[in-house]
Design brief:
- It comes from Bradyrhizobium zhengyangense.
- Helices cover about 30% and strands about 25% of the residues.
- By secondary structure, it is of the alpha/beta class.
- It is globular and about 60 Å long.
- It starts with a helix and ends in a 20-residue tail after the last strand.
């Protein structure tokens, strides 16, 4: 069975990285190295293409795990291991480097935590936060042999977050948490779904500049996730849905504190997204197909 899994995984890694137009061979290798079986739990499994009913696999053949689909962890609550092609694109966008420190919000059972650990390498570090006690317990067991990962079974919206180079969020929010922005080192990247519960939003990448109040920002793609506890706002969600309906590709920067001007695409409480670039060079993200739901 392991031989078959290795064969499936090698093809799976190549296929999803090709679909996501990934140019970093390290990312393909990370997906090739991480087995999905421990994180999926025992089969048969429930899978979906997103926005469609779950379909139960006929048996526990690992071939069913190595597809570009959502894999249910809790079908009743709509909690999944997110679509690999979408995550490959987003991870390519934030460009985790060897030796960097990464903070993941919403670890689930730890699959993408393990992929992040591969990218950060032995000299890097991954702090993974999971607020759901059951999922955190499974993640702790799944990740126990990965030396550069620390699992924290609590909210990732907290004042005591470590200073990091990358924050990768796997739960939808109506705003970027100020705690995340403060935890970023200069040059650090925050990638999170600006997509509160029930809203098809977008995966936004924000880079902390060396100086200045305008932070480079750009949507990597559309995205929809289960909601992040503490960062939901129904009214903001309604306004975000309206903003996305009018287009989202023009966003170039995040502004904090100052009043929105005519370049404002969306304004939150104390922050806003602008179509004007920040003073730093614009973020270069490769084009990508419309893989949206994770």
């Amino acid at each position: 069975m392991h031989d078959r899994s290795d064969k499936y995984r090698a093809f799976f890694a190549q296929l999803i990285c090709a679909a996501a137009r990934v140019t970093d061979p390290r990312l393909e290798q990370a997906f090739r190295n991480v087995r999905r079986e421990p994180f999926a739990g025992p089969g048969p499994w429930s899978i979906t293409l997103g926005g469609h009913p779950y379909v139960v696999t006929p048996d526990d053949d690992p071939a069913f795990l190595y597809q570009n689909t959502l894999l249910a962890l809790d079908p009743a609550r709509g909690i999944n291991i997110g679509m690999p092609g979408a995550h490959a694109h987003w991870l390519s966008g934030c460009g985790v480097k060897e030796g960097e420190t990464v903070l993941q919000i919403g670890a689930g059972t730890g699959y993408y935590t393990a992929v992040l650990a591969e990218l950060a390498g032995p000299s890097g570090r991954v702090y993974a936060y999971e607020i759901d006690a059951h999922l955190a317990g499974l993640a702790r067991e799944n990740l126990k042999d990965i030396a550069n990962v620390e699992l924290r079974d609590r909210s990732g919206v907290a004042s005591d977050l470590p200073d990091v180079d990358v924050i990768y969020v796997c739960a939808g929010a109506a705003q970027p948490a100020s705690e995340w922005l403060e935890a970023l080192r200069p040059g650090g990247r925050l990638v999170f779904p600006l997509a509160p519960t029930g809203v098809l939003g977008g995966m936004l990448m924000i880079t902390r500049p060396q100086q200045g109040a305008a932070w480079p920002a750009k949507f990597l793609s559309r995205a929809q996730f289960i909601g992040c506890a503490g960062l939901q706002d129904a009214e903001a969600g309604r306004r975000l849905a309206e903003a996305f309906a009018k287009g989202w590709e023009s966003v170039r920067s995040l502004r904090r504190g100052d009043a929105p001007d005519e370049t404002c695409w969306f304004a939150g409480d104390g922050w806003w997204l602008s179509t004007a670039p920040a003073s730093a060079p614009d973020i270069s993200i490769p084009p990508h197909a419309d893989i949206t739901r994770a």
